[in-house]
Structure formats: C-alpha cells, structure tokens
Specification:
Layout (H helix, E strand, L loop, with lengths): L1 E4 L2 E4 L21 H23 L2 H20 L6 H17 L7 H24 L5
Antiparallel strand pairs: 1-2
Helix pairs in contact: 2-3, 2-4, 3-4
Length: 136
C-alpha cells in the first residue's frame, strides 16, 4: 500500500518509510491555487518586514536585541530558585555587545548601560539573599 503526496508516492504499513529528502519538497506549481496565494502573501509580508528592518538604524535594532538579553536575564533571576548560571549568560551577552559597540549605539547607549547596571545589581542582591549573606 502507498500514500500519494505532492512529492510522490510513499509506502505505508509494514514497509519502512524512506526519509524525506530535498527532492520531496513540492514546487510552487504543485501547490493548489489557494496555497499559491498563501505563499505569495507570506512572501510579500516577509519582504515588507525586511524593508522595515533595512530602513531602521542598525543601532536601534541592536539596542532592541540587547534589551532582549536584559529580559532574558530578568526571567532567569525571577525563577524560584533563581537560575544564576543562565542569567549570567544573558548578562555577559549584554555586556559584550554594549562594551564591544561602545560609542556606536546612539541615544540608547546610556539607557542600555543603566539597564546593565540594574540587572547586575539585581543579580548580586539575589545571589546574596539566596546564599544568606548581608549586602550593604
């Protein structure tokens, strides 16, 4: 017994199925008119997103990603118990980008540095709290 797909017939049942390969991907012409229209709409949407990103200053896009590192660190610190190892990775990534691009992050740079200081302070305070050490 076999099953027909746009990529061809495939055995089903007791026979082992062969893994799908690059040749099993249907071409645009193999799609139904509705699927072709969906593909066109997705391609147009992706092109629009690319155009918006290309039109934005790179410093703004990078700053947005750095804030993602901040949020990632905060998420790991808010776990019960806090996941210090994973928070450290996010804080180190934030530090690397800010320090590596010093003077090139535009107006967002001071905000990013403030955020880095805040997340580092939260890390130290939580670590001390978990370890039962008094902080000044």
């Amino acid at each position: 017994m076999s099953l027909w797909t746009p990529g061809g017939e495939h055995p089903v049942g007791d026979e082992p199925a062969e893994p799908a390969g690059p040749g099993d991907v249907p071409s645009f012409d193999d799609l139904s008119p509705e699927q072709q229209e969906q593909a066109r709409a997705m391609a147009a949407e992706m092109a629009e997103v690319q155009e918006r990103v290309a039109g934005a200053p790179a410093a703004d896009v990078v700053a947005n990603h750095v804030m993602g590192f901040y949020e990632l660190a905060a998420i790991h610190l808010s776990q019960d118990p806090p996941n210090f190892e994973q928070a450290t990775v996010a804080i180190d990534a934030m530090t690397a980008v800010i320090d590596g691009l010093q003077g090139r992050l535009g107006e967002a740079e001071s905000t990013l540095r403030d955020g880095l200081s805040q997340i580092r302070m939260a890390f130290v305070q939580l670590k001390a709290q978990v370890e039962g050490v008094d902080t000044p």
